[in-house]
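Review form for a predicted model. The reviewer records the input and the model, then writes brief findings.
Reviewer: anonymous (R2)
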Amino acid sequence: MKDTETTEEERERRYTQWKSLVPVLYDWLANHSLLWPCQSCRWGPVIEQATYKTRQRLYLSERTDGTVPNTLVIANCEIVKPRVAAAEHISQFNEESRSPFIKKFKTILHPGEVNRIRELPHNSNIVATHTDSPDVLVWDIESQPNRQANLASPISRPDLILTGHKDNAEYALAMCPTEPFVLSGGKDRSVILWSIHDHISTLAGDPKSAKSSKTGSIKTSKGDRSDDMPSSSPYVQARGTFQGHEDTVEDVQFCPSSAQEFCSVGDDSCLILWDTRSGSTPVIKVERAHNADIHCVDWNPVDVDLILTGSADKTVRMFDRRNLTSGPINIFAGHSEAVNCVQWSPDRSSVFGSAAEDGILNIWDYKQVDKQDKSTGLFFQHAGHRDKVVDFHFNSSDPWTIVSVSDDTDTGGGTLQIVCSFLDE
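Model under review:
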Protein backbone atom coordinates (compact mmCIF):
# COMPACT_ATOMS: atom_id res chain seq x y z
CA MET A 1 0.00 0.00 0.00
CA LYS A 2 2.88 2.30 0.83
CA ASP A 3 4.36 1.83 -2.65
CA THR A 4 1.00 2.68 -4.24
CA GLU A 5 0.66 5.84 -2.15
CA THR A 6 4.20 6.87 -3.02
CA THR A 7 3.50 6.33 -6.70
CA GLU A 8 0.33 8.42 -6.52
CA GLU A 9 2.18 11.17 -4.69
CA GLU A 10 4.95 11.11 -7.27
CA ARG A 11 2.44 11.27 -10.12
CA GLU A 12 0.64 14.22 -8.55
CA ARG A 13 3.91 16.05 -7.97
CA ARG A 14 5.04 15.36 -11.51
CA TYR A 15 1.69 16.49 -12.91
CA THR A 16 1.72 19.73 -10.89
CA GLN A 17 5.20 20.52 -12.13
CA TRP A 18 4.20 19.73 -15.73
CA LYS A 19 1.11 21.95 -15.51
CA SER A 20 3.21 24.94 -14.42
CA LEU A 21 5.45 24.45 -17.48
CA VAL A 22 2.68 24.09 -20.09
CA PRO A 23 3.13 27.60 -21.61
CA VAL A 24 6.85 26.90 -22.07
CA LEU A 25 6.68 23.33 -23.39
CA TYR A 26 4.11 23.63 -26.19
CA ASP A 27 3.13 25.79 -29.10
CA TRP A 28 -0.38 24.44 -28.68
CA LEU A 29 -2.18 22.05 -26.36
CA ALA A 30 -5.76 20.77 -26.38
CA ASN A 31 -7.11 18.92 -23.35
CA HIS A 32 -10.42 17.08 -23.65
CA SER A 33 -12.06 15.34 -20.71
CA LEU A 34 -13.86 12.14 -21.79
CA LEU A 35 -16.99 10.80 -20.13
CA TRP A 36 -16.01 7.18 -20.91
CA PRO A 37 -12.64 5.41 -21.08
CA CYS A 38 -11.04 5.48 -24.54
CA GLN A 39 -8.83 2.58 -25.60
CA SER A 40 -7.75 3.82 -29.03
CA CYS A 41 -7.23 7.12 -30.85
CA ARG A 42 -6.27 7.67 -34.51
CA TRP A 43 -5.96 10.58 -36.90
CA GLY A 44 -8.26 10.50 -39.93
CA PRO A 45 -8.12 12.55 -43.13
CA VAL A 46 -7.58 16.30 -43.34
CA ILE A 47 -10.87 17.89 -44.39
CA GLU A 48 -9.93 21.58 -44.50
CA GLN A 49 -6.72 23.61 -44.67
CA ALA A 50 -6.92 27.25 -43.61
CA THR A 51 -4.31 29.93 -43.02
CA TYR A 52 -4.16 29.56 -39.27
CA LYS A 53 -5.62 26.12 -38.61
CA THR A 54 -6.32 22.69 -40.04
CA ARG A 55 -9.52 20.72 -39.60
CA GLN A 56 -9.00 16.98 -39.43
CA ARG A 57 -10.95 13.87 -38.53
CA LEU A 58 -10.15 12.11 -35.27
CA TYR A 59 -11.27 8.57 -34.46
CA LEU A 60 -11.95 7.60 -30.83
CA SER A 61 -13.51 4.74 -28.92
CA GLU A 62 -15.86 4.87 -25.93
CA ARG A 63 -16.07 1.91 -23.55
CA THR A 64 -19.25 2.40 -21.55
CA ASP A 65 -20.71 0.73 -18.47
CA GLY A 66 -23.65 -0.74 -20.41
CA THR A 67 -26.17 2.00 -19.68
CA VAL A 68 -25.53 3.25 -23.24
CA PRO A 69 -23.94 1.39 -26.16
CA ASN A 70 -20.21 1.29 -26.79
CA THR A 71 -19.30 3.66 -29.58
CA LEU A 72 -16.82 4.46 -32.31
CA VAL A 73 -16.68 8.27 -32.42
CA ILE A 74 -15.68 10.39 -35.40
CA ALA A 75 -14.75 13.89 -34.26
CA ASN A 76 -13.68 17.03 -36.08
CA CYS A 77 -10.51 18.47 -34.63
CA GLU A 78 -9.27 22.01 -35.30
CA ILE A 79 -5.48 22.08 -35.07
CA VAL A 80 -4.13 25.56 -34.57
CA LYS A 81 -0.89 26.03 -36.49
CA PRO A 82 2.39 26.57 -34.59
CA ARG A 83 3.14 30.06 -33.35
CA VAL A 84 -0.43 31.05 -34.17
CA ALA A 85 -1.85 29.43 -31.06
CA ALA A 86 -2.00 32.25 -28.57
CA ALA A 87 -0.34 31.85 -25.18
CA GLU A 88 -3.66 32.96 -23.72
CA HIS A 89 -5.30 29.66 -24.66
CA ILE A 90 -2.49 27.61 -23.13
CA SER A 91 -2.43 29.70 -19.98
CA GLN A 92 -6.12 28.94 -19.44
CA PHE A 93 -5.46 25.19 -19.32
CA ASN A 94 -8.04 23.29 -17.28
CA GLU A 95 -7.71 19.53 -16.93
CA GLU A 96 -11.46 19.05 -16.41
CA SER A 97 -12.57 20.99 -19.47
CA ARG A 98 -13.84 19.76 -22.82
CA SER A 99 -11.81 21.38 -25.57
CA PRO A 100 -13.68 23.68 -28.00
CA PHE A 101 -11.29 22.43 -30.70
CA ILE A 102 -12.71 18.87 -30.59
CA LYS A 103 -16.32 18.36 -31.64
CA LYS A 104 -18.18 15.10 -32.17
CA PHE A 105 -19.19 14.68 -35.82
CA LYS A 106 -20.63 11.18 -36.02
CA THR A 107 -21.34 8.29 -33.65
CA ILE A 108 -21.27 4.62 -34.65
CA LEU A 109 -22.92 2.26 -32.17
CA HIS A 110 -20.33 -0.48 -31.99
CA PRO A 111 -21.23 -4.14 -31.33
CA GLY A 112 -19.00 -4.66 -28.31
CA GLU A 113 -16.28 -2.45 -26.87
CA VAL A 114 -13.72 -0.91 -29.24
CA ASN A 115 -10.24 -2.00 -28.21
CA ARG A 116 -8.27 -0.98 -31.27
CA ILE A 117 -8.83 1.27 -34.31
CA ARG A 118 -6.69 1.18 -37.44
CA GLU A 119 -7.19 3.22 -40.62
CA LEU A 120 -6.37 2.16 -44.18
CA PRO A 121 -3.32 4.33 -45.07
CA HIS A 122 -4.36 5.12 -48.65
CA ASN A 123 -8.01 5.68 -47.68
CA SER A 124 -8.32 6.71 -44.04
CA ASN A 125 -12.12 6.83 -44.32
CA ILE A 126 -11.91 3.02 -44.10
CA VAL A 127 -11.13 1.77 -40.59
CA ALA A 128 -10.95 -1.62 -38.92
CA THR A 129 -11.82 -2.22 -35.28
CA HIS A 130 -11.10 -4.96 -32.78
CA THR A 131 -13.77 -5.74 -30.25
CA ASP A 132 -14.25 -8.37 -27.54
CA SER A 133 -14.88 -11.14 -30.09
CA PRO A 134 -12.98 -13.24 -32.65
CA ASP A 135 -14.03 -11.02 -35.57
CA VAL A 136 -12.52 -7.88 -37.09
CA LEU A 137 -15.03 -5.23 -38.19
CA VAL A 138 -14.44 -2.90 -41.15
CA TRP A 139 -16.24 0.45 -41.44
CA ASP A 140 -16.66 3.04 -44.18
CA ILE A 141 -16.75 6.10 -41.96
CA GLU A 142 -18.29 8.43 -44.53
CA SER A 143 -21.18 6.17 -45.52
CA GLN A 144 -22.07 5.02 -42.00
CA PRO A 145 -25.19 6.77 -40.60
CA ASN A 146 -24.93 8.85 -37.47
CA ARG A 147 -26.62 7.17 -34.50
CA GLN A 148 -27.90 8.41 -31.16
CA ALA A 149 -26.05 6.76 -28.29
CA ASN A 150 -28.98 5.20 -26.47
CA LEU A 151 -30.24 1.66 -25.98
CA ALA A 152 -33.25 2.27 -28.21
CA SER A 153 -31.06 2.79 -31.27
CA PRO A 154 -30.08 -0.25 -33.35
CA ILE A 155 -26.43 -1.26 -33.30
CA SER A 156 -24.54 -0.01 -36.37
CA ARG A 157 -23.86 -2.48 -39.16
CA PRO A 158 -20.21 -2.87 -40.20
CA ASP A 159 -19.45 -2.80 -43.92
CA LEU A 160 -17.43 -6.02 -43.61
CA ILE A 161 -16.86 -8.69 -40.98
CA LEU A 162 -13.53 -10.52 -41.20
CA THR A 163 -13.68 -14.04 -39.80
CA GLY A 164 -11.11 -16.71 -39.03
CA HIS A 165 -10.03 -16.45 -35.39
CA LYS A 166 -11.05 -19.32 -33.12
CA ASP A 167 -10.93 -17.22 -29.96
CA ASN A 168 -11.18 -13.56 -29.02
CA ALA A 169 -8.92 -11.14 -30.89
CA GLU A 170 -8.91 -7.89 -28.96
CA TYR A 171 -5.78 -5.83 -29.64
CA ALA A 172 -3.41 -6.99 -32.39
CA LEU A 173 -4.56 -5.18 -35.53
CA ALA A 174 -2.81 -3.56 -38.52
CA MET A 175 -3.59 -2.20 -41.99
CA CYS A 176 -1.11 -2.61 -44.85
CA PRO A 177 0.47 0.60 -46.28
CA THR A 178 0.65 -0.76 -49.84
CA GLU A 179 -2.38 -3.06 -50.30
CA PRO A 180 -5.92 -3.24 -48.81
CA PHE A 181 -4.80 -5.98 -46.41
CA VAL A 182 -5.75 -6.40 -42.76
CA LEU A 183 -3.72 -8.30 -40.17
CA SER A 184 -4.90 -9.52 -36.79
CA GLY A 185 -3.75 -11.59 -33.83
CA GLY A 186 -5.60 -13.05 -30.90
CA LYS A 187 -5.94 -15.43 -27.98
CA ASP A 188 -5.94 -18.40 -30.37
CA ARG A 189 -2.19 -17.67 -30.84
CA SER A 190 -2.75 -17.12 -34.55
CA VAL A 191 -1.90 -14.26 -36.90
CA ILE A 192 -4.51 -13.93 -39.66
CA LEU A 193 -4.39 -12.06 -42.97
CA TRP A 194 -7.32 -10.77 -45.06
CA SER A 195 -7.81 -8.69 -48.17
CA ILE A 196 -10.65 -6.16 -48.03
CA HIS A 197 -11.11 -6.65 -51.78
CA ASP A 198 -12.06 -10.28 -51.23
CA HIS A 199 -15.61 -9.26 -50.34
CA ILE A 200 -16.31 -8.99 -54.09
CA SER A 201 -14.67 -12.32 -54.86
CA THR A 202 -15.60 -15.94 -54.28
CA LEU A 203 -14.15 -15.73 -50.76
CA ALA A 204 -17.08 -13.58 -49.66
CA GLY A 205 -19.47 -15.76 -47.73
CA ASP A 206 -23.13 -15.58 -46.94
CA PRO A 207 -23.51 -15.02 -43.18
CA LYS A 208 -25.48 -18.26 -42.86
CA SER A 209 -22.82 -20.36 -44.57
CA ALA A 210 -19.60 -18.75 -43.30
CA LYS A 211 -17.26 -21.47 -42.12
CA SER A 212 -15.78 -19.88 -39.01
CA SER A 213 -17.16 -21.47 -35.86
CA LYS A 214 -17.31 -18.00 -34.35
CA THR A 215 -18.87 -16.25 -37.36
CA GLY A 216 -21.62 -13.88 -36.39
CA SER A 217 -20.99 -14.39 -32.69
CA ILE A 218 -19.72 -10.93 -31.85
CA LYS A 219 -19.94 -10.76 -28.10
CA THR A 220 -21.98 -7.95 -26.69
CA SER A 221 -21.75 -5.94 -23.53
CA LYS A 222 -24.74 -5.37 -21.27
CA GLY A 223 -25.77 -2.39 -23.35
CA ASP A 224 -25.52 -4.15 -26.74
CA ARG A 225 -28.45 -6.44 -27.53
CA SER A 226 -27.67 -9.54 -29.56
CA ASP A 227 -30.89 -9.24 -31.59
CA ASP A 228 -29.55 -5.96 -33.02
CA MET A 229 -26.41 -7.60 -34.40
CA PRO A 230 -25.51 -6.83 -38.04
CA SER A 231 -26.61 -10.16 -39.50
CA SER A 232 -26.61 -8.94 -43.11
CA SER A 233 -23.07 -7.59 -43.18
CA PRO A 234 -20.87 -9.42 -45.72
CA TYR A 235 -18.33 -11.83 -44.25
CA VAL A 236 -14.81 -12.27 -45.59
CA GLN A 237 -12.72 -15.34 -44.87
CA ALA A 238 -8.99 -15.26 -44.28
CA ARG A 239 -6.32 -15.46 -46.96
CA GLY A 240 -3.87 -17.01 -44.55
CA THR A 241 -3.43 -18.20 -40.98
CA PHE A 242 0.04 -18.08 -39.45
CA GLN A 243 0.94 -20.06 -36.35
CA GLY A 244 4.10 -19.86 -34.30
CA HIS A 245 3.24 -18.11 -31.04
CA GLU A 246 2.76 -20.05 -27.81
CA ASP A 247 0.50 -17.47 -26.16
CA THR A 248 -1.82 -14.55 -27.01
CA VAL A 249 -0.70 -12.39 -29.93
CA GLU A 250 -0.75 -8.81 -28.60
CA ASP A 251 0.29 -6.78 -31.66
CA VAL A 252 1.06 -7.08 -35.37
CA GLN A 253 2.59 -4.80 -38.00
CA PHE A 254 3.19 -4.86 -41.74
CA CYS A 255 6.54 -4.11 -43.32
CA PRO A 256 6.06 -0.60 -44.82
CA SER A 257 7.53 -1.65 -48.18
CA SER A 258 6.06 -5.14 -48.60
CA ALA A 259 2.54 -6.50 -48.30
CA GLN A 260 3.99 -10.03 -47.96
CA GLU A 261 6.13 -9.35 -44.88
CA PHE A 262 4.90 -8.62 -41.37
CA CYS A 263 5.80 -9.16 -37.73
CA SER A 264 4.02 -10.06 -34.51
CA VAL A 265 4.64 -10.06 -30.77
CA GLY A 266 2.86 -11.68 -27.86
CA ASP A 267 2.60 -12.82 -24.29
CA ASP A 268 5.17 -15.54 -25.03
CA SER A 269 7.81 -12.76 -25.16
CA CYS A 270 8.55 -13.62 -28.79
CA LEU A 271 9.07 -11.40 -31.83
CA ILE A 272 8.26 -13.25 -35.07
CA LEU A 273 8.82 -12.25 -38.68
CA TRP A 274 6.57 -13.74 -41.36
CA ASP A 275 6.60 -13.82 -45.16
CA THR A 276 3.59 -15.12 -47.07
CA ARG A 277 5.91 -16.27 -49.87
CA SER A 278 7.54 -18.68 -47.41
CA GLY A 279 4.34 -20.31 -46.18
CA SER A 280 2.52 -20.06 -42.87
CA THR A 281 5.40 -20.79 -40.50
CA PRO A 282 7.78 -18.19 -39.00
CA VAL A 283 10.69 -16.95 -41.10
CA ILE A 284 12.54 -15.80 -37.97
CA LYS A 285 11.48 -16.27 -34.36
CA VAL A 286 13.22 -14.32 -31.61
CA GLU A 287 12.73 -16.13 -28.30
CA ARG A 288 12.83 -13.97 -25.16
CA ALA A 289 12.91 -10.72 -27.11
CA HIS A 290 11.91 -9.14 -23.78
CA ASN A 291 11.86 -10.32 -20.18
CA ALA A 292 8.04 -10.24 -20.01
CA ASP A 293 4.92 -10.06 -22.19
CA ILE A 294 5.40 -7.91 -25.30
CA HIS A 295 2.51 -5.48 -25.76
CA CYS A 296 3.36 -3.59 -28.95
CA VAL A 297 5.46 -3.50 -32.10
CA ASP A 298 6.10 -0.98 -34.88
CA TRP A 299 8.09 -1.08 -38.11
CA ASN A 300 10.08 1.99 -39.16
CA PRO A 301 8.36 3.56 -42.23
CA VAL A 302 11.56 5.30 -43.36
CA ASP A 303 14.27 2.78 -42.48
CA VAL A 304 12.61 -0.61 -42.97
CA ASP A 305 15.43 -2.49 -41.25
CA LEU A 306 14.37 -1.19 -37.82
CA ILE A 307 11.62 -2.66 -35.62
CA LEU A 308 10.50 -1.41 -32.18
CA THR A 309 8.91 -3.46 -29.40
CA GLY A 310 7.46 -2.41 -26.04
CA SER A 311 6.91 -4.70 -23.06
CA ALA A 312 5.61 -5.24 -19.56
CA ASP A 313 9.31 -5.28 -18.55
CA LYS A 314 9.13 -1.44 -18.84
CA THR A 315 11.54 -1.21 -21.77
CA VAL A 316 11.42 -0.37 -25.45
CA ARG A 317 13.78 -2.40 -27.63
CA MET A 318 15.01 -1.76 -31.14
CA PHE A 319 15.86 -4.65 -33.48
CA ASP A 320 17.58 -4.81 -36.86
CA ARG A 321 15.67 -7.29 -39.00
CA ARG A 322 18.89 -8.16 -40.89
CA ASN A 323 20.30 -9.67 -37.71
CA LEU A 324 17.39 -10.36 -35.39
CA THR A 325 18.88 -13.38 -33.68
CA SER A 326 21.67 -11.25 -32.19
CA GLY A 327 19.10 -9.50 -29.98
CA PRO A 328 18.20 -5.82 -29.68
CA ILE A 329 20.63 -3.20 -30.94
CA ASN A 330 19.31 -0.70 -28.36
CA ILE A 331 17.30 -0.91 -25.14
CA PHE A 332 15.45 2.23 -24.01
CA ALA A 333 14.63 2.28 -20.30
CA GLY A 334 12.70 5.47 -19.65
CA HIS A 335 9.45 4.16 -18.17
CA SER A 336 8.69 3.02 -14.64
CA GLU A 337 5.77 0.76 -15.62
CA ALA A 338 4.65 -1.45 -18.51
CA VAL A 339 4.90 0.01 -22.02
CA ASN A 340 1.52 -0.03 -23.81
CA CYS A 341 2.33 1.34 -27.27
CA VAL A 342 5.22 2.41 -29.48
CA GLN A 343 5.26 4.27 -32.78
CA TRP A 344 7.90 5.59 -35.14
CA SER A 345 7.64 9.17 -36.34
CA PRO A 346 6.14 9.16 -39.85
CA ASP A 347 8.85 11.42 -41.28
CA ARG A 348 12.02 11.10 -39.17
CA SER A 349 13.74 7.73 -39.26
CA SER A 350 15.40 8.07 -35.84
CA VAL A 351 12.48 9.47 -33.82
CA PHE A 352 9.81 7.43 -32.06
CA GLY A 353 7.36 7.62 -29.18
CA SER A 354 6.40 5.27 -26.36
CA ALA A 355 3.55 5.42 -23.86
CA ALA A 356 3.11 3.46 -20.68
CA GLU A 357 1.16 2.62 -17.55
CA ASP A 358 3.20 5.28 -15.72
CA GLY A 359 1.19 8.02 -17.48
CA ILE A 360 4.14 9.23 -19.55
CA LEU A 361 4.46 9.69 -23.32
CA ASN A 362 8.18 9.68 -24.14
CA ILE A 363 9.71 10.95 -27.38
CA TRP A 364 13.08 9.46 -28.30
CA ASP A 365 15.79 9.93 -30.92
CA TYR A 366 18.06 6.91 -31.11
CA LYS A 367 20.72 8.94 -32.94
CA GLN A 368 21.18 10.88 -29.71
CA VAL A 369 22.15 7.73 -27.83
CA ASP A 370 25.74 7.94 -26.65
CA LYS A 371 26.90 4.83 -24.81
CA GLN A 372 30.03 6.56 -23.56
CA ASP A 373 28.26 9.33 -21.68
CA LYS A 374 25.23 7.10 -20.89
CA SER A 375 22.86 9.24 -22.97
CA THR A 376 19.54 7.43 -23.39
CA GLY A 377 18.18 9.17 -26.48
CA LEU A 378 15.17 10.51 -24.55
CA PHE A 379 14.63 14.16 -25.44
CA PHE A 380 11.04 14.96 -24.46
CA GLN A 381 8.46 13.75 -21.93
CA HIS A 382 4.80 14.59 -22.14
CA ALA A 383 3.54 14.26 -18.56
CA GLY A 384 0.05 15.71 -18.97
CA HIS A 385 -1.88 12.52 -18.23
CA ARG A 386 -2.71 11.60 -14.65
CA ASP A 387 -3.19 7.89 -15.32
CA LYS A 388 -1.98 5.20 -17.72
CA VAL A 389 -1.57 6.26 -21.35
CA VAL A 390 -3.24 3.54 -23.42
CA ASP A 391 -2.70 4.90 -26.94
CA PHE A 392 -1.17 7.73 -28.96
CA HIS A 393 -0.73 8.57 -32.64
CA PHE A 394 1.64 10.81 -34.60
CA ASN A 395 -0.19 12.93 -37.16
CA SER A 396 1.21 12.03 -40.60
CA SER A 397 -0.09 15.37 -41.96
CA ASP A 398 1.75 17.28 -39.21
CA PRO A 399 4.25 14.92 -37.54
CA TRP A 400 4.90 17.12 -34.51
CA THR A 401 1.22 17.00 -33.59
CA ILE A 402 0.43 14.00 -31.40
CA VAL A 403 -2.87 12.79 -29.93
CA SER A 404 -2.86 10.62 -26.80
CA VAL A 405 -5.49 9.14 -24.49
CA SER A 406 -5.39 7.91 -20.91
CA ASP A 407 -7.72 5.59 -19.04
CA ASP A 408 -8.44 7.51 -15.83
CA THR A 409 -9.28 5.12 -13.00
CA ASP A 410 -10.30 7.79 -10.49
CA THR A 411 -12.92 9.45 -12.69
CA GLY A 412 -14.08 6.36 -14.55
CA GLY A 413 -13.55 8.24 -17.81
CA GLY A 414 -10.54 9.30 -19.82
CA THR A 415 -8.48 12.21 -21.02
CA LEU A 416 -7.57 13.08 -24.60
CA GLN A 417 -4.71 15.47 -25.23
CA ILE A 418 -3.24 16.93 -28.41
CA VAL A 419 0.21 18.47 -28.20
CA CYS A 420 1.70 20.45 -31.03
CA SER A 421 5.20 21.45 -32.10
CA PHE A 422 7.11 20.98 -28.91
CA LEU A 423 10.32 20.89 -30.97
CA ASP A 424 11.93 23.28 -33.37
CA GLU A 425 12.30 21.57 -36.69
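Findings: The two ends are 44 Å apart (CA to CA).
Further findings: The CA atoms of residues 346 and 399 lie 6 Å apart.
Recommendation: see findings above.
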